Amino acid sequence: MDPNTLAGLILLVGIIFGIVFSVPIAISIGVSSVLAATPLIGIDQAALMTAQRMFTGINSFPLLAIPLFVLAGVIMNNGGIAGRLVDAAKVVTGRMPASLAQTTVVANGLFGAVSGAAVASAAAVGNVMHARMVNENYDRRFAAAVNVASAPAGMLIPPSNTFIVYSLVSSTSIAALFMAGLIPGILWVLACMIVVHLYARKQPGKLKNFERVSFGDALKIIWRAVPSLLMIVIVVGGILGGYFTATESASIAVVYCLILSMIYRTIRIRELPGILVDASRTTAIVMLLVAVSTALSFVMSFARIPDLIASSVLGFTDSPAVVMLIMLIILLVVGTFMDPTPAILIFVPIFLPITTELGIDPIHLGTAFVMALSIGVITPPVGNVLFVGARVARLRIEPVISRLWPFLVAILIALIVVAYIPALSTWLPTTMGL
Question: Are 26 and 48 in contact, with CB atoms under 8 Å apart?
């Protein structure tokens, strides 16, 4: 058998074996990379090469933005910021049908945008809103589903760790990707709000809305949330204005969140070690995935696997619409058992040459990539946001999934709209000259 073919077969079998037997995905990717490189360069060189590529994969200054944004998100999650954002969301949604559920959706969009972490958003907003929804006659399963479905919107609304990873792999502008994700992120929020509205129409008179807030009180509530929301302006505005890089903006975000939490008196000095440990755990997982996925990408390139896949796809069709559909289907399936970070590191090198040859903008491709993989975090069997949302609601995942399907349908429709209307992703970056 040809060594390149054998290497590809080993990679495929190794990763599938790991998934089937619940081996951690980082271990599956790392071991498969070593074994796949063995027929090409020998076992000794394969082990050495894998170790070197793992190190060089995370030895990157731009990649330092990820642990810093993770730390900022953990500080916000512990700093009482979620409650202020929920109050601000109430002002926007208070007079809508099913206003508590609508508030959950908007609050997740706001908190996800500030923290950039879907899991943190599901935990923070869920802890604030779930009990209130249940007390106001919402079905427990639906209340949990609302939180789960809307939490990943922050993975698209800037700043986004996922876009940083895509930028590193594709060599595209982080600032352009941040702006490209804004409209799709808003569409994600609107899709969830539409489902909530339809749910409210089936529950006439059963769901209590918030009491009307006076104009003066509304201004006070929004003013209390402005310092939290200002972080988005500082981080994204600084990057767009060229005042600092994404990594520098992440460090500014950490300092800003610390100062804000100290002003709010929601974090004490003695709590900081625990916050740092919590952020370190998440960072270690992400960086290990980046490291092993970098080694895997090198092995695939060395074995010319992306070239083989590209020639096969282009031999089957040269239609950008069909290629986009194939890509979305693959990503939706992959997202059900793989986190977005390793999926981007593995599949972007495969699809980027194909889509570039067909004239698909890399910025548009990145938006479709991230949005498709974001759906995976709320779907079984490995949807971490789904598990966190169910745990916050003290439910098993099966009852939550039974109420999650309408949201998934709406979000899939939004994904198709984003994938086949490139202007939704490219208009803002183009208008801003990015």
Answer: no
